[in-house]
Every structure is written in structure tokens, then in C-alpha cells.
Amino acid sequence: NAVIILSGDRLISTIGAYTYYLGMDFAIAGMLHFTVTYCRIKWPSALMRNLIYAVFLADVIQLLLNPIYHHAFELIPVQVDGFDYYKLNPFLGQTFHRVVDYGILAGIIAILTVKVIRSPRLQTERYSVILISSLLVTAWETAYIFSGTPIDRSMLGFGVFGLLIFYFSLYYRPMRLL
Q: What is the pTM of this model?
């Protein structure tokens, strides 16, 4: 996202946009894997797991085909505070991308919600912080999408979200336990 914001050049912004959207797919897939592992749950079936990852792969492929078919998005030039910037103009492929990522994210949030409800009180802190921060970042990104503003400031939330997950999954010890 920083490449898109700072470049002012169409080609570099386009490369940044592809990196951003493909990165979101890989980040959501990684978050799904993390959630399943961290919450110690088992997939209902290998078929379901493979199907979900196949949908991710289909999204990656359709995004990579955008330069040929122009079905996912285009960048249109706009002026923001006197600076050239390229704003996303989404098409059907971008809608598919958002449905995939938000759909999987909804599943992740459901898993975390169940863990907060069913876990012993001592363990709920670690799950609830990740759940609340994921809800906040999701709300921030959703507000950006519907606002139509050219610059995506929700990326700051993703950075904070990553730091929270890192800390609470690896280093945090419940205060009650201490």
C-alpha cells in the first residue's frame, strides 16, 4: 500500500496494487492456518481444507490474469493534495477477491468467537484480544472500501494487528496465572 501511495507512477502503483491484493490473499490464508493451529482445532475434513485453499488459489490466478482480461480492477489517476495518485476502480474480479477474503475472515472470526466462549476464563484473554483486534481491523477496512476515499489508511491497523497477534500468541502470559 505504501508503494501505491508514494509512487505517483502508474506502473509502480499497478505493481503495488497487485502486491497488495495478492498479499491480502496470502495474509488471510496465513491467518486461517494460524487460527486453526493456535486454537487447536481440527478441520472437519481434508476435502473442506483443500477446497478453501483451492478458492484462494483461484483468486490468486484470477488476479494474475487481470493484465490480460482487465476483469478485476484498473487504476485511475486522481489528485490528492496536489500529488498524483492512482485509485482503485474495482470490477467483478475484485468483488470475487473481496468475497473470498472477507468470507474466510468471517470464518476466522467465528472460530475465535467460539474459542472465547468455550475456553476456560484463564485462556479467554489471549483469544479475545486477537478477536477484538481482528474485528476492529475488519471494520476499518470495510469503512475504507465503502467510503470511496483514494488512500487506504487501514493498512496501519493491519500492522498493529500483526504486532498484537505476534505478542499475544508468543509472549503473553495471563496475569491471573502469574
A: 0.87
Residues 29 and 53: beta-carbon distance below 8 Å:
yes
Could you report the per-residue pLDDT of 70-116, keeping only the tens digit for each? 999 999 998 888 888 888 899 999 999 999 999 999 999 999 999 99
> Distance between terminal CA atoms of the chain?
40
pLDDT digits (tens, 9 = 90+) for 105-131: 999 999 999 999 999 887 888 889 889
C-alpha to C-alpha distance for 113 and 19, rounded to whole angstroms: 30
CA distance 170 to 157: 20
- Mapped onto helix, strand or coil, the DSSP state of residue 176 is coil
CB atoms within 10 A of CB 164: 18
Burial class (CB in 10 A: 0-12, 13-18, 19+), 28: buried
Residue 39 CB contacts under 8 Å (≥ 6 apart), including other chains: 111, 112, 115, 127
